[in-house]
Amino acid sequence: MKNVIFLLLFIFSFELHAKYNIVADFSLNNGLRVVCIEKKELPIACFSVFYKCGSINETPSKSGIAHFLEHMAFCGDNGAFSDFLENIGAEDNAFTSFRMICFYEIVPIEHLETVFKYESRRMEFMDINKEKFISEKGAILEERSMSCDNVPQGQHFESIDAALFNRMSGGIHPVGWRHEIESTEPQDLIDFHDKWFAPNNAVVLIVGDINVAQIKSLTEKYFAKIKSKEIAKINDDAIKPKEIKKVELKSSKIGTEAVVNYTYFVPFSVKNNFRKSMALFLVSQMLNQPTSFAKKTLENSLNKANSISFDYDYGAYQYDIFRVSISCSSVDNLSECENLWEYLKRKILISGITKAELETVKRQRAMSLAYRDQDIRTISQHIWFDMASGCTLEQIQSMDDVIQSITLNECKEALNEVLEPQYIAISRILPKEHDRD
């Protein structure tokens, strides 16, 4: 009885908190959009500004520029800003993706005007200190080593992305190619900033204990003076590859194991079919459950495979992809694991997902919201990534209701559209000395 009461209370709580309390959504004459979400529990706010540019906006031979600029934007006067935030116990950080560069700060409300001042300066100016530039280049090269060069999985996915996408559509890791990072000059960063950092190419999101009148006043004071720019159009039409891409990576760092990865083209996206995209998201959650048909089948595979994972990261690239990765216990089992996937795929398409599993992942989603919506940074991150992926604010507001309303048949239809056709890429990580027919 106690469990039933708890569940009813939880569901009621979920329904109350499923939508954000958007108290303002306005734009300045220069095109800057400002979204305000009220959350009154603590006298703090998360201020973030994300620019609708990333590695997709880089020019040939200049990979990693967007990420490099993100690093350098913490130097100069903005370096002093980071020191100020540290002294008052606040937090700041940033990140770069295929479609976005984002900066954010979590501060006490009384320091919000200081954040407006520095973020408006970061939008308007780019100062490059030569010593800091050299130092940051070294840090970025080390970051590349840690995420790609010295990590077989990093090399693996970098290679398959390069094969699947051209360099202007997701084919290069945001950190950039090593030789192009090494050849980067300060002027490259300034040029990128001058071209893409503009109020009409940015969104300011503020979450916390905010006063809308104050926000509008500060926005006018610090951002209205910045001029808009002509923003070039990027062609990101989804075009399915005409032939299957094959990538094979050999590494001395994986022992005697092997990994096989299948990549499938997703013929829909949040832009052209939001509901079906959310259905496929639920499918990936179901298939990754420890009790799913795929996972249980692996347990009975006589130790041929160690694990299987499914990944649907909507909006991450020029077009959406669905990945299946199988880790084999030994390279000698690779062929059997590949045959296992063909068997699993057929079974999954027939009866591999169930209504009980769908209800489980929906409950898990509801539970995660109870935690997510208590943290202003997590709320902000959820909105950044979904907006950068192509979701409108209205879709983000309705996302959790849509997810809860999706049926098992919708999930099966989305999965069939993706898995019924042949995969568009197959890639393998093998031991260094392995020879395979």
Summarize the structure.
With 437 residues, the protein is α+β, with helices and mostly antiparallel strands.
Structural class: alpha+beta
Helix content: 40-55%
The CATH architecture term of the largest domain is: 2-Layer Sandwich
Q: How would a textbook summarize the main sheet?
A: 6 strands, mixed
Flag low-confidence runs. Answer: 1-18
Q: How would you name the CATH homologous superfamily of the largest domain?
A: Metalloenzyme, LuxS/M16 peptidase-like
Mean pLDDT: 89
Could you tell me the number of beta strands? 11
- Strand-and-helix sequence, N→C? HEEEHHEEHHHHHEHEEHHEEHHHHHE
CATH fold topology of the largest domain: Cytochrome Bc1 Complex, Chain A, domain 1
Q: What is the alpha-carbon Rg in Å?
A: 23 Å
Can you tell me the number of structural domains? 2
Q: How far is the N terminus from the C terminus?
A: 61 Å
Please state how the strands of the largest beta sheet are arranged side by side. Answer: 1-2-6-3-5-4
How large a portion of the residues is in β-strands, by DSSP E?
A: 15-25%
Q: Which term fits the overall shape?
A: globular
CATH class of the largest domain: Alpha Beta
